[in-house]
Amino acid sequence: MRLPSLPRWPDQNYRYGVVNGWVVSLGDGFLNASVVLAGFAAKLGAPNAVIGLLPAIQAGGWMLPQILVAARIRALPFKLPVYRAAATVRTLSYVWMVASSALLADRPGVLLASFILGMVVNALASGVSGLPFLEVVSKVIPPERRAAFFGLRNLVGGLLAFVAGLVVRQVLASPLGFPLNYTLIFAVATVAYTVGYAAFGRVSEPPDPPMTPSDVRSELRAIPVTLREDAHFRAFLGVRLLLAFASLAEPFYVVFALRELRMPTSMIGLFLMALSGVAPLSNVLWARVAQRRGSRRIIRMSAATALVAPALALSLPGDWTFAYLLVFVASSVAAQGFNLGHTNHLLNLAPPDRRGRYIGTLNTLVGLALFAPVLGGFLADVAGYRAVFVISIVLYALAWWRCGRLRRDA
Questions:
Q1: What is the mean pLDDT of residues 12-26?
Q2: Does residue 6 form part of some domain?
Q3: 1 in a domain, yes or no?
Q4: Contacts of 301 (CB under 8 A, 6+ apart)
Q5: Which of 39, 133, 197, 277 has the greatest number of CB atoms lying within 10 Å of its CB?
Q6: CA angle 89, 91, 93 (to 5 degrees)
Q7: How many domains, in total, are found in the chain?
Q8: Between helices 216-229 and 231-246, what is the axis angle to 10°?
Q9: Residue 267 falls inside a structural domain
Q10: What's residue 195's pLDDT?
Q11: pLDDT score, position 7
């Protein structure tokens, strides 16, 4: 009996883009800043402010350079060479982090500083590659297929991230000592990222029409003009800023469990499995919402779901160990919705001739706000983790309310 043939990919670019999303999601599972890296830093004895800095570097550092990149690449007919160059730097920075954890085991302070340096370089290089990535996707994936494209990337990518959680749990529960157990995890992540970057680098990019060159000063001067002229973009920025500040609690779910609830380190693997295990199913849900209700509805529903995570962390009894996994389930479901909703909403809002400016403006301003977990770390030291969770709940509620001002779209 012949097996049914697999459905054909729409085109080669679609295939490379999807494979990129799958393999990079696998790497993200191994190098998750709010779970794996937070546990790594806590094991090194890092203060809360430094633990909060890790996801801020990973997310905020990715966004901050993009207004500078927007000015540099605006007149380039091809954006993919910029992506490839940045991907090379990103790969080398991962190798640096692996080497740091392997060679500086007897000097935890130096190890942490060296690792953070590698993260900073990686995040800035990621920011350089992020805008070319979105520019290329917007050129090679038609608007009507973008929701399915990102949904498919996230669906299988979530399954692979779940596999990463299984591996992390086994490695952290193995006899391999600290920090070599984390070194192994970081090395596998490096291989996954390298393969993913190479896949997207093979996309065949059509040239952009000639555009007037720009510079950083012009792009910075254009920010208030863009915000003043486009009320829909201004509303979207307001929601994104609220959501960014609301994320101040995310790296402390793990630290709270390890330091105050006294859960074993091997629970990190279970947290990561919960975070990634629900991602495929939630991506199916969000993809359906995107196709039927639009990105505005996704963002609003995601904000409501995100509020559940700090509420659970605040209210669950300390001996309800496995119930605590629901914190990461709610966080993951919300994150998948944000990933799909934010990208679609931004690409739908941005005029084609000013797409880079819109992306760069939004990501640079939101990138500054994504350093809120550092403030969360200081607050945790002064008032405790529960105070951080309360503030997060309030900010997510405000973001949900402000979503009512977003433009309705398909």
A1: 90
A2: no
A3: no
A4: 289, 337
A5: 39
A6: 70
A7: 1
A8: 100
A9: yes
A10: 94
A11: 43
